[in-house]
Design brief:
Elements (H helix, E strand, L loop, with lengths): L1 E5 L10 E3 L5 E3 L2 E5 L15 E5 L8 E5 L5 E6 L8 E6 L15 E6 L6 E3 L12 E3 L2 E4 L8 E8 L7 E2 L11 E8 L5 H16 L4 E3 L17 E2 L2 E4 L16 E3 L4 E4 L8 E5 L3 E3 L5 E4 L7 E5 L3 E3 L4 E3 L1 E4 L3 E3 L7 E4 L2 E3 L2 E4 L2 E4 L4
Parallel strand pairs: 2-10, 11-13, 11-30, 12-14, 12-31, 13-15, 13-32, 16-18, 17-20, 18-21, 19-22, 20-23, 21-24, 22-25, 24-27, 25-28, 26-29, 27-30, 28-31, 29-32
Antiparallel strand pairs: 1-4, 2-3, 4-7, 5-8, 6-7, 8-9
């Protein structure tokens, strides 16, 4: 019944606080995700089935437990910040029950270790109903591949229009083409009201997030150096191409994000729940044969590329993360080996694919 936890079992360098969806800093939440709806009375404070303790002393950590709207995620929010460089033990006992009265098969226990004093992480961008889609286009989705080099979509497509005729070049679209949708199919706007709403909300929240951000300006990502690491190595965090804070009129200098002069590495530092948010004030431009590597527990599902206008990803690129763009996204051109995306491609206007392979990131 219990599927996963956050922080994950065995995670290290867990931040002491996080920047939440409302752009405020909170204590680091501890959550448990279940496969079915749970009975709130068996989990929510003052129930004592979900606890957090320091592993060494066994001392209880004060906090409040709540459930999300679907009653599938229980979250314990500590009243005060966790201690640095400390191992904690979280427990959900078998007294927690589903809405049908079924208890957990057994007590679930996991441990994690916090990072250094003052460490602050980013909460993931909540995409809501849009998260079920691998590719979204506001106005159109077009596949330009040849029969010998087809685009492959291992997931569901959606377009915010009332006809599949704006989805071109796929075997399940009209007209037929060389793209292959392996699972999912094409959904149109009449069935995507909640998806479009949640995509727009996620984009708005992501663009407005500024707390604990690192401004990296116009320098190519492969040449950018963060906290004394090697150029192109990024620890978890919020990175922005915005050149300045908003002025009195509400505007600010902005620039493109570029990845053309080398590859980059996202280093989770032992925390598989670590989050990266890259914000481009204008465009994101990725050159040919570039690669994004994930190391030390990093996961593509926890990487977000938030782009103020358009995205262009070239040939033979190994790209990781969820792309949320205000306008167009173009993935791949005509290279023999093609471009790969592990993550979602979500565009406010058009999505253009050419010899591209898209798959959902592992949760």
């Amino acid at each position: 019944m219990m599927l996963s936890s956050n922080p994950s079992h065995g995670a290290i360098n867990v931040p002491l606080s996080v920047v939440a969806a409302n752009n405020t800093v909170t204590t680091t939440p501890v959550s448990a995700t279940f496969s079915e709806a749970m009975n709130p009375a068996s989990l929510v404070t003052p129930a004592m089935t979900f606890t957090l303790k320091t592993s060494a002393s066994g001392q209880n950590v004060a906090g409040q437990v709540s459930l999300n709207a679907s009653n599938t995620i229980a979250t314990l929010l500590p009243t005060s910040a966790l201690s640095p460089n400390t191992e904690y033990t979280a427990t959900v006992t078998s007294a927690a029950t589903s809405t049908s009265g079924t208890p957990l098969v057994g007590t679930y226990v996991w441990v994690f270790t916090t990072g250094s004093s003052g460490s602050t992480g980013q909460a993931p961008i909540d995409m809501g109903a849009a998260a079920a889609y691998l590719a979204l286009g506001g106005a159109s989705i077009e596949n330009l591949s040849t029969a010998g080099q087809p685009t492959r979509i291992n997931g569901q497509l959606g377009v915010f229009q009332n006809s599949t005729t704006v989805v071109q070049g796929f075997t399940e679209s009209s007209p037929a083409g060389t793209g292959i949708i392996l699972t999912g199919g094409i959904q149109i706007s009449s069935g995507l009201v909640n998806v479009q709403r949640d995509f727009n909300a996620a984009l708005s929240v992501a663009i407005s997030r500024t707390m604990k951000q690192t401004r990296i300006g116009v320098l190519d990502l492969a040449l950018t150096q963060v906290d004394g690491a090697l150029p192109g190595v990024f620890p978890p965090g919020l990175y922005s191409s915005f050149l300045s804070a908003p002025n009195s009129t509400g505007s600010s200098g902005s620039a493109a994000l570029m990845l053309k002069q080398g590859d980059i590495t996202l280093d989770a530092q032992g925390n598989p729940d670590a989050v990266w948010v890259f914000k481009a004030g204008s465009t994101l431009d990725v050159g040919d044969a570039r690669k994004i590597s994930l190391v030390n527990g990093a996961r593509a599902s926890q990487v977000f590329w938030v782009v103020g206008s358009s995205v262009t990803v070239g040939d033979q690129v190994d790209f990781k993360g969820n792309i949320l763009a205000v306008s167009s996204i173009s993935l791949g051109t005509v290279a023999l080996s093609g471009t790969k995306l592990e993550g979602r491609a979500m565009s406010g206007t058009s999505l253009n694919l050419n010899n591209a392979s898209l798959k959902m990131p592992a949760p």
